[in-house]
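Lab meeting, action items carried over

1. Structure of the three-component assembly. Owner: GW. Status: complete.
Input record:
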Amino acid sequence: MSEAPALDIQGLSIALPRSAERGFAVENLSLQVRPQEIVCIVGESGSGKSVTALSIMGLLPRALKATHGAIDVGGENVLTASRARLRELRGNRIAMIFQEPMTALNPVLSVGNQIDEALQWHAANGARAAPRKRVLDLMESVGLPDPEQLTRSYPHQLSGGQRQRVMIAMALANEPALIIADEPTTALDVTTQARILRLLRKIQRTHRSGILFITHDFGVVAEIADRVVVMRHGRVVEQGSVDEVLRNPQNTYTKMLLEAVPSAKPRPARLLPKAEAPILTTQDLQKTFSDAFFLRAGRKVRALDDVSIDVHRGETFGIVGESGSGKSTLARCIARLIDPSGGEIRLDGEEIGNKTQAALRPFRRRVQIVFQDPYRSLNPRRTIGQSITEGPRNYGTDKGAAWARAGALLDLVGIEARALGRYPHEFSGGQRQRIAIARALAMEPDVLIADEAVSALDVSVQAQVLDLMERLRDEFGLTTLLITHDLRVAARLCDTIAVMLNGRIVEHGPAQKVFLKPEHNYTQALLAAAPKMRHLERAATEPSLRAKRSNPETNIGY
Amino acid sequence: MGRFLAGRVLATIPVMGVVATIVFLLLRLAPGDPAAILAGDAASPEHIAEIRARLGLDQPILVQFAEWIGRLLHGDLGTSIISNQPVTTLIGQRLEPTLALATTTILFAVIVAVPLGVLSAWRHGTWIDRGVMTLSVLGFSIPVFVLGYLWIFAVAMQLQWLPVQGYVSFRQGFWPFLERLILPTLTLSVIYIALIARITRASVLEVLGEDYIRTAHAKGVGERAVLTHHALRNAAVPIVSVIGIGIALLISGVVITESVFNLPGLGRLTVDAVLARDYPVIQGVILLFSAAYILINLAVDVSYTIFDPRICY
Amino acid sequence: MSAPAEPFIAHETAADLPDVRRARALWRNPGVVFGVAVLLIILLLAIGAAYLANVDPILLRPRFRLRAPSAIAWLGTDQFGRDVYSRVLFGARVSLFIGFAVATIAVVAGLIIGLVAGYLRLLDAILMRVMDGVMAIPNILLAIAMVTLSGAGILTVIVAIAIPEIPRVARLVRSVVLSVREEPYVEAAIGVGTPVPLIMWRHILPNTIAPLIVQGTYTCAAAILTEAILSFLGAGIPTEIPSWGNIMAEGRQSFQIAPWVILFPGFCVALTVLAVNVLGDGLRDMLDPRIARGMDNLR
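Predicted assembly:
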């Protein structure tokens, strides 16, 4: 027997302003969320998933207008509600959790104050003074430690996971019928993400709310969804229960997305050339950041603490860690963009860690780095040809030769050579990242460092760039240092893996070994937390719950 | 918190040092003989020589600097050429009108400008916003003294509502004191209001674009409360900051306003000193005003901790 | 294997740089149009002063003292019988010249100091303290002091007005440098071995142009105002040269009977400064892409 849905969207269309590339941000969208059900909307950037979420709350930016359809929450059409009524519904019947917990909380108000506010604004007139107890209870129910103390804290004093729990507490305050979670775990570490997802599943069991969960990560979908809605370019391309969509996708786009998700299974070990002396080693590398100045002693942060690694020629060495682990600092020390505080770095036997910036010139070309943000790693005012040839020309290559080589490199990375005269803003994120790789290759480096080079890309684009990197590695025998927080990416490409935590390497070994037989408990925690495609594994656990939630659903595929 | 305060106080010392150095060097880098300048245009050669010896102007520069700083720290700002009185005495006599004008101006400006700026940001794009911004640009563009004369022309001469010039101490009666300060305050505060209103508007607008405002809306907080409870406290820091920086503008304006309205304050003192080339007085006034600016901005810095809990050590 | 990458097909003509598009859009901004139009008119009047003035501006005519505006003197005469209209025309030259000269000096000096401070951490602390010190001294007083010591003269006045304006420009440039330095494309340039001067020129400097243009207009406006004030106080342009401030200074004594001597030049100063400020605002709105935010949360 199905009860009234918490959310019922029928034929929603949201128009984009005239200047946009397509007519609609969302076109003819229909979906439902039942009480105690978690429905995931999956899509890449530009799919319209966030716009859908905002429209349910009535928080669309001025430029976007809902032109057709209805959004039904508890019998009321949100699209036709008055402003005053919308205000009453928000935080009360419909609540929302946003992506970036740091910026979503007011930095100058205490956490307790902000939770209390959610209660105050919807308290029935008699119960205006919401008791402090309710705030403390809420905080405890979302797993926040020491609520008494935490109530008086400010957002900047909390960790990312704690801040997101505060947001969840605010959302739960008035027992909403519908909770919308817009990529709530995207900005969090893998281990934190796992915990927040666990919390959301617990909320599903203990509260009556339906949850609309927006994400780009199919691994998360597999972990948490009951039903899935796949969106692309504003349209629903496939919809159904999680088992149906993940095991038996009908639509080609869905299939492509699923295939693009890297699995956490490491590739079989490659045959590498005989072990010779490593091309790159670090020995007891140290980096301490301090903001001391003159007489003022500042705070010290130990970013790198006795880090020692060996990278052999042709090897793909992965450095995996969460934020704050020091992995990016390590990359930048090796690339000599910053100076280490202690220890050695040897490139092909020669010490480069203590060389001055001037003395580093001959070594610069041998270590090249590809950065994380494709939108900021190319100078927007220079053509990509100028950016790619800048390096070789610094070292004496004449203009003609450099440009010819740049054209060949563009071809290699899959971009028309004619595009040399174009500016970065004419390219997409994935294309820019490929240009960045071409720029790095133009120097003919011995070592290529990829610092979270695919983290900012959509899943399908990510897969393409990883393919490219694999191809280049195989063709040119490129030694790669792959820095990532995503174990699945590391599993895809790496021969050797080092796991970092708080500036130290806690585990180090061939990829097969680290993945299948991790020794350190942090590695084990990381592996356990990584969202896996559990649809293949889930069957055994929680059978009674699954039976309760499953409804005879027709699989709506396009 | 104590460490933060101590740090901030310590940070002002180099700045005051720079000010002192600039003032010191000004005299000594100017073309001509410092002693002759200090002695005045009508001084005899013997007088000039006497001044040179008395102030140690023939000694090496570093020694001079040290001695000068020493005198400063003892409160000795030198002697006026014209009146032969210590500069500190002259300043003391003229302090009250300037303080009165400055205080009324700051109070009036803040009370008018901040709400205007907030309103302008809240009703962004409407005629209120455009009106405030247009008036603000106008306020920046009219020279202070022209505005003063316009007021005098309109209010004092044509309408005869208020006296044209002069100052009466409040000890001699509150209303006479106030009525003579109305026009000068209106004149001087215009530019300050323009500045504060603009920054307030920009700051509030920027804050309104932040994510936590969206969260507040998502919780169902009412519009007015979003503005007052969430936005303003976050917007406060830049606003208070510009009030502090605007003091420099204020001081420049005081000099002319007193001149136009004939208030016997520090501004008039300076102007008279300029015409008479009485350098020690000019120097003393500069040091005083700079110190006031630095101290006020120190207070502003410290006030940030009230508004933003992130600033605390 | 994933889906094949979509190939990039270069169009026949390259898309314009965002800078270029923004620059072209400038003409649609009413502030820019108004400001440029007014300034052009004033500039033409100033250049053509010799032809447009009908009386010698420094000619003393005691017979016509303190006459109200009439047929013989369109804007009236001052206490020496000099024709205000002609003096105002010639005064325009001085004011515009000073505004432009001060803005140029302040921008160039501020740019150099800001670049150095932003890029060389060691010099940063010292330079910024010095800038703070200069900013602590009220600019009129500093200018007055300098002019008093060095004697009046156009060059002295220009330098005296420019120096207090430099710190603001320097701080602006420094903050741009500090933020651009963190951009990955600058790190990439370091990584491919580009030497520091080239990095400054190619990657950092272009980001300062737009803010400098905007700040330059504000500096110009401030300079014109300051000159008027200085001359009014008697610490500015020497009295032989007619400047708007000088004209007004001489109108002080007789304001109650001849207000036009102050009010007309005052109006000219206000109009010119207004035009420059409005131009600056318009430029800033068009060249700074951050302005458009903050509108969507108002509901």
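2. GW to write a short summary for the group page. Key points so far: Chain A has two domains: 1-82+179-184+213-261+534-552, 280-532. The CA atoms of residues 112 and 151 of chain A lie 4 Å apart.
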